[in-house]
Specification:
With 565 residues, this protein is of the alpha/beta class. Helix content is 29%, strand content 16%. The protein has a seven-stranded mixed sheet, sandwiched between helices. β10 and β11 form a beta hairpin. The longest helix is centred in the first third of the chain and has 18 residues. It is globular. The two termini are 33 Å apart. The N terminus is likely disordered.
Amino acid sequence: MTSTVPNAVEHTDGQQPPITMFGPDFPYAYDDYLAHPAGIGQIPATEHGTEVAVIGGGLSGVIAAYELMKMGLKPVVYEADQLGGRLRTVGFEGCDEKLNCELGAMRFPPSSTALQHYIDLVGLTTRPFPNPLAEATPSTVVDLKGESHYAVTVDDLPQVYRDVAEAWNKCLEEGADFSDMNRAMRERDVPRIREIWAKLVEKLDNQTFYGFLCDSEAFKSFRHREIFGQVGFGTGGWDTDFPNSILEILRVVYTEADDHHRGIVGGSQQLPLRLWEREPAKIVHWPYGTSLASLHPNGEPRPAVTRLHRTAGNQITVTDANGDIRTYQAAIFTAQSWMLLSKIACDDSLFPIDHWTAIERTHYMESSKLFVPVDRPFWLDKDELTGRDVMSMTLTDRMTRGTYLLDDGPDKPAVICLSYTWCDDSLKWLPLSANERMEVMLKSLGEIYPKVDIRKHIIGNPVTVSWENEPYFMGAFKANLPGHYRYQRRLFTHFMQDRLPADKRGIFLAGDDISWTAGWAEGAVQTALNAVWGVMHHFGGETDATNPGPGDVYDEIAPVELPED
């Protein structure tokens, strides 16, 4: 029998397509699916114009709505806060409007190939992001236990840091078949990916990240594990992830999600905002010039959803903050799933009990950032004695943890992300105001850079966020704990509703916390496309035979199923 799983697009230059974040749990080529000239599916003409509720106007919700609109359905988007979700770009009061910061997603790997499809579609550009020791980063300072090391490349750091990097490579190779899996991912060798991953899921589902390190002979030294937790790989320290499932970390490293990051010029929130206004050239049912904005009164989404319940005929009835009640044949829920437990009154009948359990068990990580605008990228000034940059991208075990320097040219105002922290490190900042946070951060950085007066360069008020304190998020992103694989599988596979009782169908879960790669915008895109396929199928639609969708090939590439007993 011939497989219906799409093969990688053939490139005329003989090169393999880029590695993607499509796996290893569900190795489906979403980028090829989106690029296919046949499109991603169609619905019967009798269903054209039918309203579908899309709850949540983050990236996942906007992409789902955009693709439903192109099929001829009428998405009705509900948004409690602002379009973009955790793609949130903000300016600084009193400063040039071009000066902004990313409170949420700010760096995207090349392996986010489905995300890149939409970035290209709306005409946005990207540029290298200045991660520690990245090529785009002029210099990095690693400051641990009061001792600072200046580096342009990893070779400039003391030998112990290179030993730690080598230990991590050995740990991955010996415990997780890294080279073999990475090669299979690059070649899109689905059978090999599934073979390797099936063994690892069964072996490692109950293992923490820290336990995985401790089991490796390469990390028998506590000092090496400590340095690794504080400095890490790619974007910096990973000790805040130590309690999480090692499977979460393997997904990141296999897909190179933590490497070669790029930022979106002008801010990431432009992506959902441009999609909201975009008038697709190829659209069914709707006249040319139709956009998501034009399908909504005054071009704005409807307000927050306050209640969801089922009504006769297995329909989904939505009540919003204005008291408006509307009933739909189908709905997509893209907000963070905890909203179903707290902010929205829900019938238990919306989902099977096992799915409610999975939603309740979702584990979110906290995250905080604080930015300040400065007059210029003064950090590129040279120290007269050493010839080094006077300040660098900084990784430290002090309260700030990660400090990023962001500029748009030597003579223009710039931005410093004084601190980017997760989990316990983020909770330490929670009681403090933006100004109080800034004072603590400036004190810590002053101990690392005693010759640098950062304060004299600040030209505006600080801007901060603690995602765990945001009422419609209550956390930054999902991160599974050991033993959570089964829960995540239930959430991810929810779009395959032929397997559900008739009275549990019609509402589809999406968003990055439903994906296998939470915390990455790519997961929001992929689950949106899964939900769109689910809605299409729910209305009796289908994909073109030459471009099967994720549901069409599900049985061939379904995620590993562990026993539930």
